[in-house]
Every structure is written in structure tokens, then in C-alpha cells.
Specification:
The chain has 435 residues and is mainly alpha-helical. Helix content is 49%, strand content 7%. Bound molecules: carboxymethyl coenzyme *A.
Length: 435
């Protein structure tokens, strides 16, 4: 642990003479952290933190969030600056390497990624095993996990060159895998990547083009796609990233770990929220139904959530939501879509919720998913593709965090403990003697 201990906490276990002194570590920014590793040896007790709301599970130099201030930094750079000036592949370089690239480094990196965009031809056949109506996230979990059966030459996690090649392969192939999941759904031919195109552009090409016609990617959409990818590239120790780290801590190969991350992302409390927002807006249907819907959300018995609102870390506006809300207006404007009813409904819902005591008291603000679905819909994506696009964008974050973990000298297998409340030891009884 490179964070320095400037002070400590000493705790004493009531009714015993046992105490433990816990070093308090400081990172470069953010709350200090009590190092509790000695607590079991000193006091014989574990700590309890379901949902990890107060637990730092690792040291990281990649992404920083200040949830109260609504700040998100990739390697120290504010998301607003990267969204305005950078490109997705430059952000990928930054996340993987820690610094922004020189023009020559960026060119070499882009060529390195683009060289890996094709899939092993046998993977095409793999798709045929799925039902035609398979959800793209189900296909992504399966196909990404299966990559480990095709790329045996880069599976040694202790070899830095293998780690680098696997990272390149994952980032490069993800758009192809996602676009083909959609093509499989529609029954259209799979389109091979075109390495003369940029990363986001290539994805839009594989997603939209058909072999029978020329297809030119709309530059407005390509820029919007690139921006959406930047905004989703990494987000500190969220559920899917923690899943990737936990899977990786066992020594599992990177393709298997990213497949685990995709599965974790799929849930509606995480990446699946963008799809759920659109479903929610469709169910609400009209501005006049908002009060009734919000009453249902506030009724704890209903289990209905205002999807796209709230965040474990942000207790202020999610900075990504602000950027994407503006991009949403720009894209709809540039595409000539005036007065989109879904956007109007979302804006009204946001306005009402932000002035409602329930949401104000709980510091619930729109998160990135509140607007990403609307922009993706306007760009022509079916709702089932929304979370798959999130997975494409987040792959660089997952693989950067995975590599950081492998290189961390303090890395051990992740193995949480528990407070056991089940039966204590008892004797097995033959069936006739039970009950
Ligand atoms: N609608 C209604 N009430 C909510 C919502 C919501 N969206 N989010 C939180 N609350 C309430 C929650 O019921 C609790 O109320 P009370 O104190 O009365 O019990 C209070 O706010 C605190 O919430 P919490 O459940 O302790 O918050 P959490 O940190 O465990 O959950 C969350 C965070 C993102 C899972 C949750 O806010 C949520 O389910 N939001 C909707 C799904 C969503 O938009 N997810 C995307 C997150 S951002 C992108 C990503 O991570 O992929």
C-alpha cells in the first residue's frame, strides 16, 4: 500500500483487555482509510459492511469520484475536459497507461487496437448456438467468455506482454461482438470491421451497414457514440469492476473475468438501468401520469424505483448525466428531431423529482443512465442494445483495473468473511427419525 499512515485509530473490545491500533492511510485525494487488516488477529472479530458502502477493497490510481461534489476524474483529468477535447481511444490509452499519449504514441496505439478488431472466423459459428431473440447481453457473456477458448497464446496472466495483447484484443473485438449480436437478432449478414474507420465509427458501420449497399457513417452519430463511450469508460470500484477484480484475484484469465463483469453489469441497478429507463418512460406514457408514478415510487411496498436516479457514490448531480443531457439535445437537434416526446417526458420527470421532498431528502439525482437511453434510442439503437454498448465502453476500465490488480504486490485472492446466523452444529438423523 503506497498511501502513508499519518495517524491511527485505537479500538478496544468492550469487556476484554484486547485493543487494536489501526493505521489511517491517506491517498492522494479523498477520504482517509482505516487499515483493518490486523483487527481479526488483535480482537478476533471481523468487520461487517454488506454492499461495501464503507470499504475500500483495493488501492487504485485510475479513477477518482467525489460523490458530494459531483466530480469524476480519469487519471486526474476531469471528465468534462476529456468529453470536450479527447477521443475514446485516447481515453483508453490514458486509462491503460496512466498518461495522455503523444501524437506518435496515440497513432501506434490506435493501429494496435484496430489490428485486433476481427474475430476468429470460428466464432461466427458460435453465434448460431443462440436463439434468434437472444438478448445481446446474453450473447456477449457467452462470446466474450468463449474468447479464452480461441486466444490461448495470450492467457498467461503473469506475462506483461500477454496481458497487453489480451487487453488490446478485448477492447478491439468488443464492438464486433456487440454489433454481431444485433445482426444475429435481425437476421442480417454479419459485417466485418473496416480498419480505416475510427473506433466508434467502425462500430456504427458494423451495426448499421449491409453488404448490399454502400454505407457512410453519419459523423454526428460517430462523435456522439465516441462521447458516450468516453463517459462510460471507467467508474472506479462499481459492481462490475469489483466483479472483474474478484474473478481476476483467483488467477482466472482476462476473457473469463470480463465475461463475469458483463454479467454483473447486466442488472437493472447497474448498467441495465439505461434499458430500464426507456421501459419506465414508455410505461408512464404521458406527463400527466408522472404524479401517479412518483407516488408508486415512494410507496416502499411497490418496489418501483425511479430508474436512472440515485447512485451509491454521487449525492449530487452525476457529472456524466449533465454532459449526456446536453449531448442528447445536440444530437436530437442535429438529427432534426424536434420535440422528442420521450425527452420531453424525461425532462419533466427530472424537474418534478428534483423538487420532490422524497428525492431531495435522499439526495437522489439523475445518473448517466437517465439520458443515455434517450440519446441511444434517437441514434437508432433498440433498447436491448443499450447495456451491450455500456459493456463495449466499460471494457477498457475493466481491463485496466484488472491489470492494475495483477501488478499490485499486495494482491491476494478476494475472500470476504461473514457473520454466520444459521444453525450451530447438530447431528444427522436418518429420514425416519426426523420431524
Ligand atoms: N428511486 C426511488 N428511491 C430510491 C432510488 C430510486 N432510483 N434510489 C435510491 N432510493 C432510495 C432508497 O429506497 C433508500 O430509501 P430509504 O432510505 O427510505 O430506505 C434511499 O434512497 C437510499 O438508497 P439506497 O438503496 O441505500 O442506495 P444504494 O446506494 O444502495 O443504491 C442504486 C444505489 C443506484 C442501486 C439505486 O439508487 C437505484 O436502484 N437506482 C435506480 C437504478 C439506476 O439508475 N442505476 C444506475 C446507477 S448509475 C450507472 C451504473 O452504475 O451502472
Amino acid at each position: 500500500m503506497s498511501g502513508s499512515a499519518k495517524r491511527s485509530i485505537t479500538i478496544t473490545l468492550d469487556g476484554t483487555n484486547k485493543s487494536s491500533t489501526l493505521p489511517v492511510l491517506s491517498g492522494s485525494i479523498g477520504p482517509e482509510v482505516a487499515d483493518i487488516r490486523r483487527i481479526y488477529a488483535d480482537l478476533g472479530i471481523f468487520t461487517y459492511d454488506p454492499g461495501y458502502g464503507a470499504t475500500a477493497a483495493c488501492e487504485s490510481k485510475i479513477t477518482y469520484i467525489d460523490g458530494d461534489a459531483g466530480v469524476l476524474l480519469y487519471r486526474g483529468y476531469p471528465i468534462e475536459q476529456l468529453a470536450e477535447h479527447s477521443s475514446f481511444l485516447e481515453v483508453c490509452y490514458l486509462l491503460m497507461n496512466g498518461e495522455l499519449p503523444t501524437p506518435a504514441q496515440l497513432r501506434e496505439y490506435e493501429m494496435g487496437i484496430l489490428r485486433h478488431t476481427m474475430l476468429h472466423e470460428q466464432i461466427r459459428q458460435f453465434y448460431n448456438g443462440f436463439r434468434r431473440d437472444a438478448h445481446p447481453m446474453a450473447v456477449m457473456c457467452g462470446v466474450v467468455g468463449a474468447l479464452s477458448a480461441f486466444y490461448h497464446d495470450s492467457l498467461d496472466i503473469n506475462n506483461p506482454e500477454h496481458r497487453r495483447i489480451s487487453a488490446f484484443r478485448l477492447i478491439a473485438k468488443m464492438p464486433t461482438i456487440a454489433a454481431w449480436a444485433h445482426k444475429y437478432n435481425t437476421g442480417q449478414p454479419f459485417m466485418y470491421p473496416q480498419n480505416r474507420l475510427g473506433y466508434a465509427e467502425n462500430f456504427l458501420y458494423m451495426f448499421n451497414a449491409v453488404p448490399a449497399e454502400e454505407y457512410k457513417v453519419n459523423p454526428i452519430l460517430a462523435r456522439a457514440m465516441d462521447l458516450i463511450m468516453i463517459l462510460h469508460a471507467d467508474h472506479e470500484q462499481n459492481a462490475s469492476t469489483s466483479t472483474v477484480r474478484l474473478s481476476g484475484s483467483t488467477g482466472a484469465n482476462p476473457f473469463a473475468c470480463i465475461a463475469a463483469g458483463i454479467a454483473s453489469l447486466w442488472g437493472p441497478a447497474h448498467g441495465g438501468a439505461n434499458e430500464a429507463v426507456l421501459k419506465m418512460l414508455a410505461d408512464i406514457g404521458h406527463v400527466r401520469n408522472i404524479p401517479e408514478f412518483l407516488s408508486e415510487v415512494k410507496d416502499k411496498g411497490s418496489h418501483t424505483k425511479l430508474m436512472g436516479f440515485g447512485h451509491r457514490v454521487y449525492k449530487n448531480y452525476d457529472p456524466r448525466a449533465k454532459i449526456i443531457q446536453k449531448a442528447c439535445h445536440d444530437v436530437l437537434g442535429e438529427l432534426g428531431i424536434k420535440g422528442d416526446p420521450l425527452l420531453d417526458l424525461a425532462l419533466e420527470l427530472e424537474k418534478i423529482a428534483l423538487n420532490d421532498k422524497y428525492f431531495v431528502d435522499r439526495k437522489l439525482y439523475p445518473n448517466v443512465d437517465f439520458y443515455s437511453g434517450i440519446i441511444l434510442k434517437a441514434m437508432g439503437f433498440p433498447t436491448s442494445m443499450f447495456t451491450a454498448l455500456f459493456a463495449v465502453s466499460r471494457t477498457v476500465g475493466w481491463i485496466s483495473q484488472w491489470a492494475e490488480m495483477i501488478e499490485d504486490p499486495e494482491q491476494r485472492i478476494g475472500r470476504p468473511r461473514q457473520i454466520y446466523t444459521g444453525p450451530t452444529q447438530r447431528e444427522y438423523l436418518p429420514p425416519g427419525q426426523r420431524g
